[in-house]
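tmp note - tRNA(Ile)-lysidine synthase
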Amino acid sequence: MKRTNLLSEVKKTVGRYRLLQKNDKVLIALSGGADSVVLLTLLLELKHTFGLSFHLAHLNHCLRGRESDEDAEWTEALAGRLAIPITIEKRNVLEWARREGYSLEEGARKVRYAFLSNAADKVNATKIATGHTLDDQAETVLLRLLRGTGLSGLAAIAPKRGRVIRPLIELTRQEIVGYLRAKGVEYRRDSSNLQLKYPRNRLRLELIPFLKKEFNAKITELLGRYGELAYVDNSYLETVARGAFSTVLILRNVSRIVLDRQKLLLLHPALSRRVIRIAIKEMKGDLRGIKSKHILSSLELLTGKRLELPSGLILTRQYENLVISLTERKCEAFSYGLCVPGTVVLKETGMTLVAEFLDRDFLPKDSKSRSPEEVYFDFDRIHLPLIVRNRRIGDRMHPLGMKGERKLKDILIDDKIPRNERERIPLLVDTEGLLWIIGNRRSERAKITDVTERIVRIRAAADRI
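out:
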């Protein structure tokens, strides 16, 4: 059935997935293509309904020479006509992808989302809106299916993930282009979308049209629905698996995770496999290079001794425990600035740190209920700037609840952190010294008191977008 009122459909999607709240500041990813232009147009229609404010963001990927530059110029001109501020930056995506060992599509995605996240932090945006459509969903589901993915992979493009929202995810590309033509709205066309050297383009231009003609004219809607069902089921299973992971977890730090083998064996296979996936992702920061066969082999290790996985990951059975660790490697000195609010990704450890202000009403009352991956400080007692780095000679800290300062080396020895792992442990410091051994102990300094006015929460998590 052809839908003519796209605004009404987007309102349904926004309501169904709770994509927007009152007074959201939305960073809109504006490539200049049809999808992003419709996204901008329809969100402007919702401005007064939700009290929204906007900032636009355009990334020049440097993939199409002058054409890419013209896209940037076009988006800047559009932003000017609409009187909406815009952030435009340029990245050599191809060079970055080659250097980091990613495919062009995967590399472009990582660079793009890093850019959007940083841009959102700088303008204090509460949401990042992208123009993904039902066609994008269908293509991603089919592409991953052909590559042999599991349920989590079929849960392709989520309508909402963190602060990233996709209001057009239930609209087809045909509906979007038709809308623009009917309104007489201009948009940019990406010539690389016609190049068959890219797998996604071959699928879009050849395979899906063939499936529509020979098997099912509604294949796009069918695949999109499949992706939606997979997303719902996978979200539930991930929540249950997270709980199961907590029950089998014995130890977690930046260099190893230890799981209780007996408790792991008692889990349903659907959960035990996901627990292993969670542990691997927590350990190495992502699941790149990890296949279903690796997960199954990891479970079989429960009756063996040692298994080596891609990216230098080692799984070892130690008595009744399963230990997941990284091979020993020298970690060079690193240092990153952390703004409040703000986000920083530590490429050396595969960890992301997020700093944000917190209302006292949301501060956990029981200190025992607090995760070791998050800490709370009195912001006005921190001596800025905040830096995240690994250890340096002479590092000392006054651990919370203890008397006086201690050498960092002695603290790590007491906590039984292996010598080869100590260089990788990230530390949060200000100009006065150590505040937090991330994932471990925190300092007595800048703790929350009854007179604290501004609370900052800092969370550590595996690096994922």
